[in-house]
UniProtKB/TrEMBL annotation:
Source organism (scientific name): Dyella flagellata
Coiled-coil ranges per UniProt: none
Range of residues in the leader sequence: none
Protein name: Sulfotransferase domain-containing protein
Domain Sulfotransferase: 56-263
Keyword Lipid metabolism in record: no
UniProt keyword Repressor present: no
Entry-linked SUPFAM superfamilies: P-loop containing nucleoside triphosphate hydrolases
Keyword vocabulary terms for this entry: Glycoprotein, Transferase
């Protein structure tokens, strides 16, 4: 009864995307092929067994380009953690037409949980690592309603560095067409005009423009954290500082394990995952100064709200 099908799927995805990459197929088309394979796998195996499956115990809701892929990779190596079929199910943002039974199909079988807890007396934790959830106005209420009381993990990063990493990622994938970061920043207000208001009004609307081009907007953390805190108490939320935990990943990993109630597990090697390897110049000093001035009041509000100074420069 233990679900043995996730690992073969990952192997197939890795093999196919590697072949496509070797053949010179653009990254965006690689994503399309991988998504199609994933969809077929869900239809053939996961959908028929969805009612027999569990829901996630933890949501890693963000932020993008702040180590969520690394957290997912670290937890995937823990014997008490059981990954979803796909790292980012995107249930609460990109699949408004689906219901919670579709979401269940992404996670392990309940029998697996029962065996771990009853037969082997071990903790059993599964999770969803979709870093755009923290942006969604209706997500906190909906996650409470549909999932009960999942744990929430949010990894923050200096918003200037996060914005530039976001730009590099969008540029590498092909979403961003502007050659200069400063030009993309200037275009952001026009690109995102009215998008936040649409998301507020329509629970099923997720702004793809915000996901792709919200370089500054997605770095105003205080706006989103306050909203999540209305639905989740401090005890259910773990907020990490990416700029600190990359220096001491073993300490951060231990903190995550304690928060999830699983055994501390030393990995030995703490590699970074999903690092953009394309060559880009450093942020121009004048652009960095402008961004520092823009984020300074928002960062100060965040420090006061969390009673923690992240010392972002």
């Amino acid at each position: 009864m233990i679900d043995r099908f996730s690992q073969p799927l990952k192997s197939v995805l890795v093999a196919v995307t590697s072949l496509l990459r070797w053949s010179g197929v653009p990254v965006r088309k690689q994503f399309v092929v991988a998504a199609w394979i994933h969809k077929c796998w869900v239809i053939l195996w996961r959908t028929p067994t969805r009612r027999l499956r569990t829901l996630p115990d933890v949501l890693v809701i963000g932020v993008s380009k702040a180590g969520t892929s690394t957290i997912a990779a670290y937890l995937a190596q823990h014997p008490d953690f059981h990954p979803p079929l796909y790292k980012e199910p995107h249930y609460f943002d990109l699949h408004p037409q689906e219901n919670v039974e579709w979401y269940r199909a992404q996670f392990p079988l309940r029998m697996h949980r029962w065996l771990a807890k009853k037969a082997f007396k071990r903790p059993f934790v599964s999770g969803d690592f979709t870093p755009s959830y923290y942006l969604l106005p209706h997500a906190p209420e909906r996650t409470r309603r549909e999932l009960g009381s999942p744990k929430i993990i949010l990894s923050l990063r200096n918003p200037i560095d996060r914005a530039y990493s976001h730009y590099k990622d969008s540029r590498s994938i092909g979403y961003e067409i502007m050659d200069r970061f400063q030009d993309a920043l200037k275009a952001e207000p026009t690109r995102l005009r009215g998008e936040l208001e649409k998301m507020e009004k329509d629970p099923n609307y997720c702004s793809k423009a915000l996901l792709s081009f919200g370089y500054k907007t997605r770095g105003i953390y205080i706006r989103y954290i306050q909203h999540w805190r209305r639905w989740y108490p401090d005890s259910d939320m773990l907020i990490l500082n990416f700029d600190e935990w990359i220096k001491q990943p073993d300490d951060a990993y231990a903190k995550i394990c304690d928060f999830l109630g699983i055994r501390r597990w030393a990995l030995g090697r703490y590699a970074a995952y999903n690092v953009n390897e394309h060559a880009f110049p450093e942020i121009p000093s004048d652009v960095r100064r402008e961004l520092a001035a823009f984020f300074e009041p928002h960062n100060q509000a965040l420090y006061e709200y969390l009673k923690t100074d992240f010392c972002w420069q």
